[in-house]
Amino acid sequence: MKNVAYIEEPVSWQNSFRFFIPITIRFSETDMFGHMNNVSPFIYFEQARIELLKEAGVLLDDGDNSGVPVVGDLQCDFHKQLYFDDKVRIYVKAQNIGTTSIDIHYMAVNESEEVCLTGRGRLVFINVSTGKPVPLSSNVKQKLKML
Amino acid sequence: MKNVAYIEEPVSWQNSFRFFIPITIRFSETDMFGHMNNVSPFIYFEQARIELLKEAGVLLDDGDNSGVPVVGDLQCDFHKQLYFDDKVRIYVKAQNIGTTSIDIHYMAVNESEEVCLTGRGRLVFINVSTGKPVPLSSNVKQKLKML
Amino acid sequence: MKNVAYIEEPVSWQNSFRFFIPITIRFSETDMFGHMNNVSPFIYFEQARIELLKEAGVLLDDGDNSGVPVVGDLQCDFHKQLYFDDKVRIYVKAQNIGTTSIDIHYMAVNESEEVCLTGRGRLVFINVSTGKPVPLSSNVKQKLKML
Amino acid sequence: MKNVAYIEEPVSWQNSFRFFIPITIRFSETDMFGHMNNVSPFIYFEQARIELLKEAGVLLDDGDNSGVPVVGDLQCDFHKQLYFDDKVRIYVKAQNIGTTSIDIHYMAVNESEEVCLTGRGRLVFINVSTGKPVPLSSNVKQKLKML
After folding, report:
1. Which of C26, C50, C60 sits opposite A47 (nearest CB)?
2. Number of folded domains in chain B?
3. What's the CA gap between C93 and C77, in Å, rounded?
4. Distance (Å, rounded) from C-alpha C31 to C-alpha A43?
5. Complex ipTM
6. Hey, are the CB atoms on B75 and C72 less than 8 Å from each other?
7. Which of D103, D98, D86 is nearest to D13 (CA)?
8. Least CB-packed of A84, A102, B1, C50 within 10 Å?
């Protein structure tokens, strides 16, 4: 795995993930070279992130004051090519938990236990009406730390 | 062009289109055989349909009682393969205009003036609050006939 | 369920399906009304179709003379709205098996056992080099009938 | 515009772009909050990148030894929300041109001349047969510097 700035120490970083979703590379997600499309990791990351947030009790439209998650930035490093029908586990965790935002890290591992993709991105919680950041509850923070 | 049930007479059907949007087949829309993905026509049809509706003054969220367009069915016939970077005109028209729904027809023509895709689909106008069909205004009907 | 031309008798038609894949509506597959995008059924149908073909031993790139599946037409009827995170079973079967093509039928059923989508489409098997249709082996035909 | 690590000085960085493609946010690219999907910028960046490479004479499948472009990493910062039907110019340039790779920068500007997205990513040129990096020709390098 090549070096990336957001991973301080690869082995401990990889071992710190617990939560994942299984993904199979769809036919519609391959391009004319047979590779997984470069856009697809961000679809998988999003899906993994949503499952993590649901697990942590951050509902998407719960009508209370918990704020809607908005993407601040996103990045992905491509370490190994992925192909049609590859089975991949998309790991996700809240690497840093701030007052109104979290830094989320991602890792895609194939069936040979190779790290194929790594990534990260910041998520800010916004009140839809006011457009202003909303603090995360201590309950949600606690759950995110456990996942 | 092979026969399809929704086209009575091909030549007059083709000539009856006026409104179109230009589309270029994107790299992310090709699959591992280099062909345009089978899903892509429905993205193009949607885009063409929305431009037609805008042109006819059917706004998507105008706050009045004009109803939101909901897809009842969709179909597409693939007459000629399309490839990455092909330039295509997506023609669209309201073939039949009912009280609360319209039957929309589609045709994709490449730069060699070949018909590559044909299609159709019914659109029903629904009141979001009640879930019930909403009649089209005579003004909108009139505009749709002209396009 | 509204009537559609390709379904002769709804109850026996529904009961004739055996093979399915599970799908969860992804966040990226919803539109600004919260509904599943109209394009998504065709992504699910494709995925279900590929799994059916794999199960029947129709490989996608097996190097022999078995032909590559090419879509002739596709259609989908929308019976009930689907939303983010809905769990759906996408049923698929080879309704009619011809010499060089098959007519594939589709049905999406939600967790309340409601039929939300139905569809069909013709698949033709083509030799990539010659561009000509290739007959299906009796072995593949036999397997398709069983699924 | 918030600070991002890959932009040393915002004003001169913005002014250094020349090449762009026009994009309209498609309906299918919005999510249930009405926002542009977080995945869409990477589709637009890819399309802009391909147009830049074509303009520079880097063909995708030209049969010679020029190498196929493979994505090493990708990142995007979201500065301002984008919505359905927004018209955006996607600027793209080769920020750094190495022996076998280039660092590409991206900027999306809306009709009010606001920077909505910025991004970057490394592209490596690979020989499909050997899997090894291929040096860029001086001709291509020269053209990339001009665009």
Report:
1. C26
2. 1
3. 17
4. 15
5. 0.92
6. no
7. D103
8. B1
